[in-house]
Structures are given as structure tokens and as C-alpha cells.
Amino acid sequence: MARARLRTGTPLTRFGLGGAQLGNLGRVTTDEQARGAVEEAWVRGSRLFDTAPHYGLGYSERRLGELLAEHPRDEYVLSTKAGRTLVPQVYSAGQLDDGGFAVPAAYRREFDFSRGAILRGVEQSLDRLGVDRLDIVYLHDPDHHWEQASIEGIGALIELRDQGVVTSIGVGMNQSALPARFVRETDIDVVMLAGRFTLLEQGPLADLLPAALEAGVGIVNVGVYNSGLLARPRVAADATYDYVQAPATLIARANAIAEVCEEFGTDLPTAAMQFSLRHPAVTSVVLGCRDARQVAEGVERMDAVVDEGLWDALISRGLLPEGVFG
């Protein structure tokens, strides 16, 4: 599988496996499903694996660490996140996490981007993952914490990068304006951008993507199906967008794109996957997958041969902006 390198030398395969479902996002993921997802990604040539303490209150990290322990550490890239601190709490029998994961509510999450919290958080992640170093650590959703995150949080990650505990550092957010500011004003190497540069949204063309190109900062694109809206060949009336009911105008736009895809012999999810990788600032796409089948579908969509005329047609019909690919 093709790879791109961050400015620190970290090699990222074009496709990566996201670990939210390994943390029981929405419902239980069986051990068989989790193992199947990791092994299918490996067999398909992917060597990029992403997780976070937030995913299942640490369960995703523990699970992914156990599965990756069967492979040589130097052969894969492992990323996690910091800043959404897990605080132990008293909980009753059968009480589940209220953050969307089917796991016991043994912790609550607190945003804390102080130096101490970041250093402790990374140490705890290393322990859960069973490794002695991390390839990438992102500050996780510092949307409302610019001052502390940009000074103390990034400062702590720079310390860890200087010590060799972490190779590359960055931020992960579902907006583009603040990550663009991190790119311009702090010494980060990579941004994980969630759901904002897709077939339906290209706002980062105005801020983050040009800033990243200028600074040599990589973009790892996630949420490329817009929480399911682009995951099927045609969009149902009850489809979700950002995990709530999608507006009718957005559904109509997605189906208009789907019609053009069909004219060119492909489908909406394949076009969504390939679009997500076409901008020169984007190094990789990370896709959250629950099992081997979802991994296989993602990689096959990435590798499918798509008529280049599709993109010109989408632009000429006003469904994509001019200059969308940099």
C-alpha cells in the first residue's frame, strides 16, 4: 500500500484503521469482529492504526494494543490522543458509559490540556496499549481550550517528541478553522480532520488545507462518509449527518452527486473515499471499521479505478467547487 511521510519521517499508509468501534461505539463489537478488522487491515497492507482513551473509556486502546502485539512494533504506525482525561468514578452495576460506548461507566471524561494531564494521559495510554513509544499523539478536540491547549498541551507533546517517546504530534478536531491556527502558530506535524473535507463539504479549502501545504503539515482525513450520509449508493430520507437527522437539502445534494457517480460507472461511497485522498495536503484516510468486511470495503473503494471525468462533471454541475484539488 502506498505511503506518505510526515515531516518527522513517520510513514503513513494511505488507508488506516480507526479504533472507535473497537471500543464498542454504539454497540458491542465482539472479539472475533475486532480481530477480523485488525487482521484484514494488516493483510490489505495498511499499517496505520488509530485509537483514543475516549473510545470505550480506554477499552479500544487495550484491545488494539493486544491485537497489534502479535505484529512487529517497527512495522506499524500507532496513533492515540490526549486531553480528554479519564477520571475514575463510582458507578452502579450495569451502568453504561453515557458517551456513546457500550462499556461500564467506570470513568468520566474531563477536558484537560494542562502539561501534567497530557503527560499523565500519554503515560496511561502507553500502559493500556502495551508499548513504549507512540508514533503520533493528537490533542483530542481542544475546540474550546485554545489557550491551554496551544501552550501547555502542545508544549507537553513537544517535550515528549524531543524525548523520543512520541515521533509526531498534532491535533484532532471536526472543524478546520482552529486546526489551521494550530498549524500557523504552533509546531505540530499533523492534523486529524474529522468530517469536514468530504464530497459534501470543502470548507477547509479556505483555511486548513493551504496552511498545511505551506507548513508541510500532513492531514489525516477521517469521517469521510459524513457519519453515514455517503456510505451507501443512494441516500435514504432518514439518513444522519453529524449523527443527527440530515437536512433534506443535504440529502438532495448527496443524491445528485450519486446520480453523477452512476453516470460514470461508480457509486457514492467509492467516490467519497477517493475524493477524501485527492488533495495534496491529505496523507491518509482513517476509516472506523467494526469487522473485516468493512475494512475490505474501504480498501477496495480506495483502490477502485474511477473515471477521471467524474470530478470534472461534478465541478461543471456545481456539485464541487473549482480548484477543489489544490
Question: How many strands?
Answer: 14
Helix content: 25-40%
Radius of gyration: 19 Å
The secondary-structure element order is EEEHEHEEEHEHEHEHEEEHHEHH
Strand content: 15-25%
Supply the helix-strand structural class: alpha/beta
Account of the protein in words:
- This protein is an alpha/beta fold and 326 residues long.
- It has one domain: NADP-dependent oxidoreductase domain (TIM Barrel, Alpha-Beta Barrel), CATH 3.20.20.100.
- It is 36% helix and 20% strand.
- The chain contains ten helices and 14 strands.
- The strands form four sheets. An eight-stranded parallel β-barrel has the order 3-4-5-8-9-10-11-14, surrounded by six helices.
- A hairpin with a 5-residue loop joins strand 1 (3-5) and strand 2 (11-13).
- It starts with a strand and ends in a 10-residue tail after the last helix.
- InterPro entries: AKR, FDH-like, NAD(P)_OxRdtase_dom_sf, NADP_OxRdtase_dom.
- This is Aldo/keto reductase.
